[in-house]
Amino acid sequence: MSEIGKPISRIDGRLKVTGKATYAAEFNQQGMAYAFPVRATIAKGQIASIDDAAAKKEPGVLAVISHKNALKLKPLDQEAQMKAGAAFLGETLPPLQDNKVHYLGQFIAVVVAESYEQARNAAYRLKVRYNAEKGANDLKSELPKAKKPKMFMGEEAQVNEGKAAGPLAASAHRVNQTYTTPVEHHHPMEPHATVAVWDGTEKLTLYDATQGVGMTSAIAAYFLGLQPGNVQVIAPYVGGGFGSKGLWLHTLLVAMAAKVVKRPVKLALTRQMMQTNVGHRAATIQKVALGTDAAGKLSALRHHTDSYTNLTEFFEPSGKQSLVLYKAPLREVTYNVAKLNRGTPTFMRAPGEAPGTFALESALDEIAYELKMDPIAFRIANHTTNDPMKGHEFSSEYLVDCYKIGAENFGWSARSMEPRQKRVGKYLVGYGMATATYPGGRSAASVKVTMTANGEVTVGTASIDIGTGTYTVLAQTVADALGIPVDRIEVKIGDSSLPAAPLAGGSQTTASIHPAAMESCVMLRKELTTLAIADSSSKLHGRKPEEIGFANGKLFITGDEKKADAYVDILRRAKRTELEACATTQPVSGAGMTVPSALCTPRETPAEQNSDIKQHSFHSFGAQFAEVWVDEDFGTVRVKRFTSVHDVGRIMNEKTARSQIIGGVIFGIGAALMEATEYDQRWGNPVTRTLADYHVPVNLDVPPIDVHFIGKPDPHISPIGARGIGEIGITGVSAAIANAVFNATGKRLRDLPLTPDKLI
Ligand code: MOS
Predict the structure, then answer these.
(1) What is the complex's ipTM, to 2 decimals?
(2) What is the pTM of this model?
(3) What region holds the Aldehyde oxidase/xanthine dehydrogenase a/b hammerhead domain (predicted)?
């Protein structure tokens, strides 16, 4: 029976709940010192002077590093970024190189001391004077200066600009509305931390809370001017990332600090620093216009996003789903990107689609209401089985099934079209739904599988488990492909010295590493088969490879399982201490989240792995259903039930997959009802600085979440058939909730989060 798909518990679960899984900040070293950063208190300007005399006199202080004495680092250019895996998640300007301040909270110095408390104490005694300028803190007032970016991640950013106006004007029905979303922060449970250990001046080891050991290794080496490969990054366990764990500048600060004091140094960010120094989701102002004919067929779709960036080219790509969903003859998707003096925005779980589906799927609900059509019927009437921009068929697509399964399990038929029709006690009850979608990417990945003479198997790849289940699911695939139990398999990930894998982002880990893992196992079985056939004392001697099957750690003649030969016996008689194979998954064109230099060679890939990447578009789809109870006296919204149905290809582990979707839906409930980072417009400082005021859903905010999977393998993404699952769960959630609030109250709220002040 196949191991793949079984709902087994995490193989690293016991280590985690007993505190034995080692996270970055726990890699304590002999003679380790501690670094504490100093952050700018203005949003824009120059440092006029830094007086470190008082700080240096404090007990335990080893060094104070600022732009006056910092190591010179190389700014990151586009080419270096591509070489390190295109999806670099951090900032491109290295720290402490000049006296310029680009945002409040920017690192301007770092203090190193014998203890954390001493470093922190001395850091507060640094006297910094600034020449402050007026920072750009307000998106709306900066929009007149905003630029239209040409590209986003290798794709054209401005699509059919200005072309929708005509068809929209000629439409029988129209909706044209503005939807806004706030700044959000990732806030993974584990704060960012790095321990830096130099071996001489040319080799560096970083124990780092990162989503990509290969990416961090390559980019740190670049910034620090080291040979690629001379920075080893180790991250066996990572407590969440959601896009925030790229290479951010604290990692470079601690590397510099360790070089200066010639000792290992640890730097752990405070929760407050995570508001300014490790990225966020930028606020968006989205204008969505839809036009239909009299029967409700879409004639045009326009989606414009105003947003901002700071020190990178990244902007929130909220129009992405509007290029993929629904059959509309004309779609226009455009962006304006301003520059604000606040910590640099970055990828955050479903970058683009999370705020983008709020706007698009709210607008769809609005036009369906105009047309007096059921929102599901409206979506089915406008369903597309082709990628509307590329014209390709989707590789496998069951969105209509998602709607139907969702509607049935949720009890959608009990919904009334007219709002304010259902009450329970003093609560108004409403139902809402929305479509979910996320691209199905696949990046290059190499996976090495080693079998030792005693039958133990090790699988190694420079992948990461940020809480998603990578350890567990990889063990399942190898167990399945070799016919051995999961508990005989050791999974080695989170080390940049292993064969290359993509960073844990873009929902690509499973689709990328599993084809290579399976292929490596096939190569091992072939070698075992060859050894057995050639061995005169094997029961398989002289037989044809096609006749030979495998299970329970043995090869055997199919249909005659007594004629078997155990892997350990084959290896013992051949006097082999171990067998090893390393195969590589090829990227779907355009996807590049892997450092190519660390892929194993040879890199030929079986044709099957690549069969259809030119003929198909790879996307996952889903349907989200929410029931809300609204208290009109207090304006509070409670999500009472949630149903989430997804078409993500093959399910590799029913339990970890379900957890991913539940996590995504909870993330979406946070975005819908409570999450927002507020800035003081005068100074540009975030005023929601901790988890006490940046609200995320807690247990009482989270209803039962009913998760369903279509579960049909995608025949084109890989021989395994799994697309990604990490991000789609959040998409559509805030729209489903806002649509349910409309159904409950008759109030159409277009500004997230849906806080009580907007409902009374
Ligand atoms: Mo995800 S935002 O690609 O970590």
Answers:
(1) 0.97
(2) 0.97
(3) 18-134
